[in-house]
């Protein structure tokens, strides 16, 4: 607010009066990139989708020979739960709702110069039969926890260990920060 000017009626016996307000919007600080070039990649964010069943945990065989959980990169505008549901459907044909996804925490490790952030998520309800939907990943099946196949993709092994620390899996270390479960009221 810069000023307020009172304007009285030109008729001396009129109680009408006007107020003229002069205001200025505060200057906004613009935000823009330093250059038009994208930043060099220094971090990667992905989800590892844990789908348990009475038969075990769902893993698919990548064409490069490692067994892995469904999962992948989180796209701009997606929640972690939405990314998990999308990746699970795209890769294995399983349908789940984001409300049936429990985000377990954050795994942090480094691959060369890139910090890898992997979020293990647990799908508690789903429908469908796993089947190959992408050329790179198939042979989906449920593996008992005591008979997991080898080799396991490192982020998948890290996610599985975050979910169940008792699993006898060897993998490079990753810092796991579990998320607290919301309190039920």
TrEMBL record:
Keywords: Hydrolase. Its cofactor is Mg(2+). Coiled coil: none annotated. Signal peptide: none annotated. GO terms for molecular function: hydrolase activity. The keyword Mitochondrion does not apply. PROSITE patterns: NUDIX (PS51462), NUDIX_BOX (PS00893). Residues 40-166 form the Nudix hydrolase domain. CDD domains: NUDIX_MTH2_Nudt15 (cd04678). InterPro entries: Nudix_hydrolase, NUDIX_hydrolase-like_dom_sf, NUDIX_hydrolase_CS, NUDIX_hydrolase_dom. Residues 1-43 are annotated as: Disordered. The keyword Hydrolase applies. It comes from the Bacteria. Belongs to the Nudix hydrolase family. This is NUDIX hydrolase.
């Amino acid at each position: 607010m810069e000023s307020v000017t009172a304007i009285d009626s030109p008729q001396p016996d009129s109680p009408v009066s006007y107020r003229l307000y002069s205001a200025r919007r505060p200057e906004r600080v613009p935000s823009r990139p330093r250059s038009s070039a994208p930043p060099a990649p220094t971090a990667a964010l992905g989800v590892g989708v844990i789908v348990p069943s009475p038969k075990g945990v769902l893993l698919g065989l990548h064409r490069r020979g490692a067994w892995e959980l469904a999962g992948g990169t989180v796209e701009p505008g997606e929640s972690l739960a939405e990314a998990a549901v999308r990746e699970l459907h795209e890769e294995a044909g399983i349908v789940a709702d984001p409300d049936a996804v429990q985000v377990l925490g954050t795994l942090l490790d480094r691959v060369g110069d890139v910090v890898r952030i992997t979020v293990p998520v647990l799908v508690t309800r789903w429908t469908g039969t796993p089947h190959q939907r992408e050329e790179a990943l198939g042979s989906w099946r449920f593996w008992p926890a005591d008979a997991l196949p080898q080799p396991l993709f490192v982020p998948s092994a890290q996610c599985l260990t975050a979910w169940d620390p008792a699993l006898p899996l060897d993998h490079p270390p990753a810092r796991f920060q579990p998320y607290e479960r919301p309190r039920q009221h």
